[in-house]
Amino acid sequence: MSKRARIAIGVTVVFVALGYLVFTGISRSATYYLTVSEMKAKAATLGTRSVRVTGKLDGSSLKWDATKILLTFDLTDGTNRVSAVYHGIKPDGMDDGRDIVIEGKVAGDGSFDVNNILVKCPSKYESQPAGGK
């Protein structure tokens, strides 16, 4: 086999290996972003896959246990709701009706085991009513 053919084979093997590593890295780190209704509809097929779920916080369901460092709450999209359990410090700004993004996995009982909570900030740049200040 000529030197040129060996170099071509070597370069091909390197590119195939790099392509495989990139593909598997992206597929493992991909996190799906769902609404509460979408998550409820796909709960059985999600398995142990990590997902992000967005919705509004139901403030009446918010329970904080400082001794256990346990936060439980419900997230809703107006149609469906999901109970969430978070072991960690309660984030600031967890107010009724606030947009929340939770990241974690669906538990066997249909609740959501939360790894991370993102509380969306209200926008300062929302449009004003016509003629209003």
Report the radius of gyration as a whole number of Å.
Answer: 22 Å
Judged by helices, strands and strand pairing, the structural class is alpha/beta
Assign a percent range to the helix content. 25-40%
CATH architecture level-2 label of the largest domain: Beta Barrel
Query: What overall form do the CA principal axes indicate?
Result: elongated
Contiguous helical run count: 2
In CATH, what is the class of the largest domain? Mainly Beta
Read across the widest sheet, the strand sequence of neighbours is 2-3-4-6-5
| CATH homologous superfamily heading of the largest domain | Nucleic acid-binding proteins
Cα end-to-end separation: 79 Å
User: Mean pLDDT, as a whole number?
Assistant: 85
Count of folded domains: 2
Runs in which pLDDT lies below 50 for 5 or more consecutive residues are none
Largest sheet: 5 strands, mixed, barrel
* Proportion of residues in β-strands: 35-45%
Tell how many strands the DSSP assignment holds: 6
How do the SSEs run, as a string of H and E? HEHEEEEE
CATH topology of the largest domain: OB fold (Dihydrolipoamide Acetyltransferase, E2P)
